Amino acid sequence: IAAREFDEPYEWNSHEGGARRANVDQKSIDAIKFNRPLDGVPEKDALVIRFGRAIFQDRKVPSELYAKVVEAFGQQGMFELTAIMGDYAMAAIMLRAVDQHVPTVTSELPAIKR
Predict the structure, then answer these.
(1) Please, which residues have CB within 8 angstroms of residue 25's CB and are 6 or more apart in sequence?
(2) How far apart are CA 78 and CA 55, in angstroms?
(3) What pLDDT band is residue 107 in, cutting at 50, 70 and 90?
(4) Mapped to the 3 state alphabet, what secondary structure does the chain carry?
(5) pTM exceeding the 0.85 threshold for the entire prediction
(6) Average pLDDT over residues 104-111
(7) Which residue from 6, 62, 65, 95 lies 20 to 30 Å from 51 (Cα-Cα)?
């Protein structure tokens, strides 16, 4: 989610294949990659995507969404999701700072309207 939100191709290409190998539903990957609605995305995946979009796009997490994330993943899980997203946001910023390019592009990040 952070790689997509920062439009960071190096980071995205480093993880899209891993998500497939980890059996992440393709609908979830495409919802993130193409900034699509979450129709048909598995429930927990949709919850994580909504949480990430709230953090990165809205810059706040509504109380109701926060409560659903804690209910689904526990307090520790919510902290871990937040920390992971923050870590990858930091990585995206660092990659931009050093102008890192993708050596072999396996998947282009399409432009999305925000």
Answers:
(1) 41, 42, 45
(2) 12
(3) low
(4) CHHHHCCCHHHHHHHHHHHHHCCCCHHHHHHHHCCCCCCCCCHHHHHHHHHHHHHHHHCCCCHHHHHHHHHHHHHHHHHHHHHHHHHHHHHHHHHHHCCCCCCCCCCCCCCCCC
(5) yes
(6) 67
(7) 95
CA distance 56 to 39: 20
Within 13 Å and on the Cβ side, how many CA atoms surround 71? 9
pLDDT digits (tens, 9 = 90+) for 50-98: 999 999 999 999 999 999 999 999 999 999 999 999 999 999 999 989 9
Q: Which long-range CB contacts under 8 A does 47-54 form with residues at least 24 apart?
A: 47/72, 48/1, 48/81, 49/1, 51/81, 52/1, 52/2, 52/5, 52/81, 52/85, 53/1, 53/5
Q: Nearest 5 degrees, angle CA 100-CA 111-CA 11?
A: 30
* Contact status, residue 1 vs residue 53, Cβ threshold 8 Å: yes
Measured between alpha carbons, how far is 18 from 99 in angstroms, rounded to an integer? Answer: 23
Which position has the token pair 């526990």? Answer: 74
